[in-house]
Amino acid sequence: MSTDFPEMRAVIAGGSSGIGFESARKLASLGTRSFALMSFNQVRLEAARDRLLTEYPDASVSAIQFDAMDPESVQTAIDKAASELGAIDTLIASISAPKFKPELLFRTPITDIPEMLLAQAVGPMLLSRAALDHMREQKSGSIITIASDAAKAATPGETVLGGAMAAIVMFTRSLALEAKRDGIRANSVTPSLLTGTPTTDRALSDGFSKKLFEKAAQLANLGVASAEDQAEIVAFLAGPASERITGQAISANGGISAF
């Protein structure tokens, strides 16, 4: 087993499934043994913790329930994670809003738009702010936000989603410039269509989003990417091999688009 990251203490928000959980598995395969998994759904969260411990029984894994849209809940959860782990070396903010699917703007209820923006964009910002105090104190840290290629490519049906994703990416880039003086790096991972995640499964269930994603899959000549593919990038950005990289938004999308 590789032991590239044996001392890393990783906090993974959205760690109960998808990119968040696969990132935990990847880091564990590289030697990380101290985790705090965070999610809103307590049942899924505990199941993810148990699964990770089954694969890596020598790991220490906390399961912390929180609400990514509630500043007080986020701060309390991050402080608890820092206390239990002793520090936060890596924060992975993988927040999704599966309630909402891609849709043309004229078909989007106007009353849904504020919640769509808040549910997608605010969580990574709150998490980063809460973790920043701990990382500044130790003069080191890596913050990795999960957005999507909708931040970079104008796509019909992703008008509001694209706005939210662009907000995450620009937030992360600006944070990178602010935090570098304290030895803290900040980068984004921006996947496109993914296989085998709850959000993708729901989007492919019916309607406009199904047509959109099926068309995108046809462009992925290198293969539709998976959550595991994104976890490879996350692990790289979390680790020492990327210690000079900050303010970047990296895509692994199988060739759906290029930037």
From TrEMBL:
<dbReference type="Pfam" id="PF13561">
    <property type="entry name" value="adh_short_C2"/>
</dbReference>
<dbReference type="InterPro" id="IPR050259">
    <property type="entry name" value="SDR"/>
</dbReference>
<dbReference type="InterPro" id="IPR002347">
    <property type="entry name" value="SDR_fam"/>
</dbReference>
<comment type="similarity">
    <text>Belongs to the short-chain dehydrogenases/reductases (SDR) family.</text>
</comment>
<dbReference type="InterPro" id="IPR036291">
    <property type="entry name" value="NAD(P)-bd_dom_sf"/>
</dbReference>
<protein>
    <submittedName>
        <fullName>SDR family oxidoreductase</fullName>
    </submittedName>
</protein>
